[in-house]
UniProtKB/TrEMBL annotation:
One of its GO terms (biological process) is DNA repair. The keyword Metal-binding applies. This is Regulator of telomere elongation helicase 1 homolog. It catalyses: ATP + H2O = ADP + phosphate + H(+). GO terms for cellular component: nucleus. Keywords: 4Fe-4S, ATP-binding, DNA damage, DNA repair, DNA-binding, Helicase, Hydrolase, Iron, Iron-sulfur, Isomerase, Metal-binding, Nucleotide-binding, Nucleus. It is found in: Nucleus. PROSITE patterns: HELICASE_ATP_BIND_2. It comes from Dioscorea cayennensis subsp. rotundata (White Guinea yam).
Length: 778
């Protein structure tokens, strides 16, 4: 295994490292050695995750041996195994802990797979939710808060045998965590040993060198407080796949309270009153938790809050009612909800949660009985914690108070009454980062394949990043074709803006262009639209409009399907896995000449899937995915940033509302583009079908590695010729050995495996590549 000396530290790497990988690891180690923050962009396919693990673990080991060594030494002593308490203590508490986070558990599973491929064996643990880890016969069937509440109740009553065995299991197995494992491995251990995987991971995290967890375990204050075994002042935080981190941070600090949900909370408060009265009648109990007056007060307050929300004057349904963030305190004070009374309300809600658990579960917990045990009052507690955070009001300057009105949902019991939503939106994602600074963490490393532009990303998080990197790709120029296509086969300009998107000429021209791309591009083709609305409008036009000028009267949709079998990204999450499997099946069907996936920027297809090799030979971006300017949250965010920029006049670095607005759209495009070119030997094309991509202001916000390859074409014929030549050259040169995807997971990048040629859609099976441009009349 090669060893590289980087900034005085020996880094073991499983392969011969590329130059960009050496540079990346150098930046990671610099950040750790200098106890400063880093913002690192490196495109997918450059081994970013493996570099990050090897560099950070090499630095950590340079400070002292991993805890696995100590655990193994203690494991040799039967006396220490019997004592248990010694092995439960982290023996090297003065050494830093690395907390490695990503967006999803499936992404963390990939990270742990990379750890297994390395030569490093730190003591590790991975955190997950009960939904992923629970093995109780009844509770594992539940979801969300119903599952959490049922688990709490059973553990408190010591009725879960899996939980009861955790302490003894941890004492007798000090070696757990010495070898890398993921959540599935831990669940298998739990089922085999009949011990709770969830609480095993909670115990194990207190004595590790590296901890793997989803973002929310750090960003959510409640989850963060549960990590009691971590000394934050001696911790390194790594956020992988951090391109959406600012929106996640802002959402975690905000809340939206619909009146329909508030009605359900009122119902629960009334239920608590009834349960208390019944409990006192049965047990003759007069304890504080069983006092119905407490819950009657809670119910009365919630009723007043509901009434007060409906009293807010809304003169414009589009604009709603907006005030500065501090208005929330004036609004609540009219209801006698202050910091002092909020603390009492929170205690009452905690008691209500317990009461509802007991009232809905009884003596024998079954899935049928606990399925509806969801305490919505807990949301009110969370809201109060956000508003009265740390007992202060200074954070309110980053917020806007907004009430909006909408038609009631079908399930709303207001009988036709307009529904309202009370929003308190945080527009400073840096609040979460400020918490980490306040906690004194050593370093924060943010990394992704799509962080550009770095300046605006750093400004959004309100954090200094002395160490920065925008890495090039490891591929050669011959492996990628990038073209901006400002007009179609009939020279009609491509522009998906609001003014143009409903134009019949535009939709027909875009369809004709995609017909040509479907003929030219072999295997898998991805087409991304700015929104579901535009995708639906285009597909409907292509499917239902016959064109009399066409010699065979075929629709555009029929012409596309002649070359590629279509799959459409569904809006419903429940249908997404089926769409992925359908796309995979159509790729493998040798009677087809490939498949085309119609999807949406910011959708599931654009975010976490890996269309490597033949699964994604080209991606078409049909426009800029700008958010609706009239959306209240977007409008207020832009206003907030513009006001902040004015207040900071004279400072060199400020982010305006328009800059943020464009940056959000560009980053979504960069994410969609990143679905292809997934490894060193991959190849593919990226096609921008919108004349706005010819502007330098948009191109400079593309990912750094992509910019050198971008070419703008004046004629569509040149695009067709260039694409045809690119794929013909790739086929004839045979530079890349074809591979196939073993499976495309809806929540995970695919694992690429070598397969026999019989399993592949061979390029030779594709229709002959066309150099001529074919319009609707062909």
């Amino acid at each position: 295994m090669p060893i590289y000396k980087i900034r005085g530290i020996d880094v073991e790497f499983p392969f011969e490292a590329y130059d960009c990988q050496i540079v990346y690891m150098e930046k990671v180690i610099q950040s750790l050695q200098e106890n400063c923050n880093a913002l690192l962009e490196s495109p997918t396919g450059t081994g970013k995750t493996l570099c990050l693990l090897c560099a950070s673990l090499a630095w950590r080991r340079s400070l002292g041996e991993f805890s696995t060594t100590v655990s193994e030494e203690k494991g040799c002593s039967s006396e220490s195994q019997r004592s248990g308490s010694q092995s439960m203590e982290r023996p090297r508490s003065h050494l830093p802990v690395i907390v490695y986070t990503s967006r999803t558990h499936s992404q963390l599973k990939q990270v742990i797979r990379e750890l297994k491929a390395s030569n490093y064996r730190p003591k590790m643990a991975v955190l997950g939710s009960r939904e992923q880890m629970c093995i109780h016969d009844e509770v594992h069937l539940l979801r969300g808060r119903a599952q959490n509440n049922a688990c709490h109740y059973l553990c408190k009553k010591r009725r879960c045998q899996h939980h009861n065995r955790v302490s003894d299991y941890m004492k007798n197995h000090p070696e757990l965590g010495n070898e890398p494992f993921d959540i599935e491995d831990l669940v298998n251990i739990g089922r085999t040993k009949r011990v709770c995987p969830y609480y095993v991971s909670r115990d194990l995290h207190k004595m590790v060198d590296i901890l793997f967890a989803p973002y929310n375990y750090l960003i959510d204050p409640g989850n963060r407080r549960s990590l009691t075994g971590i000394d934050w002042r001696n911790t390194v935080l790594i956020f992988d796949e951090a391109h959406n981190l600012e929106s996640i941070c802002a959402d975690a600090a905000s809340f939206e309270l619909p009146t329909g949900y508030l009605t359900a909370c009122i119902s629960e408060a009334k239920q608590c009153v009834d349960l208390c009265i019944r409990k006192r009648e049965i047990y003759q109990s007069a304890d504080k938790e069983s006092d119905p007056d407490n819950y009657a007060i809670l119910k009365a307050l919630l009723l007043k809050l509901e009434k007060r929300i409906y009293e807010v004057p809304i003169t414009s349904k589009e604009l709603g009612f907006t005030r500065p963030g501090h208005y929330i305190y004036e609004f609540l004070e009219e209801l006698n909800i202050t910091y002092e009374t909020a603390s009492m309300l929170i205690l009452t809600i905690d008691d209500a949660t317990t009461l509802l658990e007991e009232g809905n579960t009884g003596e024998n917990v079954t899935a049928k009985e606990t399925k509806g045990t969801v305490c919505r009052l807990e949301s009110i507690r969370d809201i109060l914690n956000i508003i009265f955070r740390d007992g202060g009001k200074s954070h309110a300057k980053y917020y806007r108070f907004h009430v909006q009105e909408s038609l009631p949902s079908i399930s709303d019991s207001s009988k036709g009454k307009m529904s309202r939503t009370l929003n308190w939106w945080c527009f400073n994602p840096g609040l979460a980062m400020e918490e980490f600074v306040r906690m004194g963490v050593r370093s924060i490393i943010l990394t992704s394949g799509t962080l550009s532009p770095l300046d605006t990303f750093a400004l959004e998080l309100n954090l200094e990043f002395p160490v920065r990197l925008e890495n090039p790709h490891v591929i050669s120029p011959s492996q990628i074709w990038v073209g901006v296509v400002p007009s179609g086969p009939s020279s009609y300009t491509f522009n998906s803006s609001y003014r143009n998107r409903d134009s019949l000429d535009y939709k027909q021209e875009l369809g004709n262009a995609i017909v040509n791309f479907a003929r030219i591009v072999p295997d898998g083709l991805l087409v991304f639209f700015p929104s579901y609305y535009l995708m639906d409008q285009c597909l409907d036009c292509w499917k239902n409009m016959n064109h009399a000028s066409s010699t065979d009267f075929k629709t555009i949709w029929e012409r596309i399907c002649k070359n590629k079998k279509p799959v459409i990204e569904p809006k419903q999450s429940a249908l997404f896995q089926h769409a992925i499997e359908d796309f995979e099946a159509k790729l493998r069907d040798r009677s087809n000449s490939g498949a085309i996936f119609f999807a949406v920027c910011r959708g599931k297809v654009s975010e976490g899937l890996d269309f490597a090799d033949h699964a994604g030979r080209a991606v078409v971006i049909t426009g800029m995915p700008f958010s609706m300017k009239t959306d209240p949250k977007i409008r207020l965010k832009r206003d907030y940033l513009d006001q902040h920029a004015l207040s900071q006049k004279g400072h060199s670095k400020v982010l305006t509302g328009e800059e943020w607005y464009v940056q959000q759209a560009t980053r979504a495009v960069n994410q969609a583009v990143g679905r292809v070119i997934r490894h060193r030997h991959d190849y593919g094309a990226i096609i921008f079908c919108d004349e706005r991509f010819t502007r330098q202001s948009h191109q400079c916000q593309m990912s750094y590695w992509l910019r050198p390859y971008v070419q703008c074409y004046n004629k569509f014929g040149d695009v067709a010729f260039g694409l045809t030549k690119f794929f013909r050259d790739k086929v004839s040169s045979s530079l890349v050995k074809p591979k196939t995807t073993d499976r495309i997971s809806a929540f995970n990048a695919v694992e690429i495996t070598e397969s026999s040629d019989d399993d592949l859609i061979c390029v030779s099976d594709q229709p002959k590549l066309q150099t001529e441009v074919q319009d609707i009349n062909s």
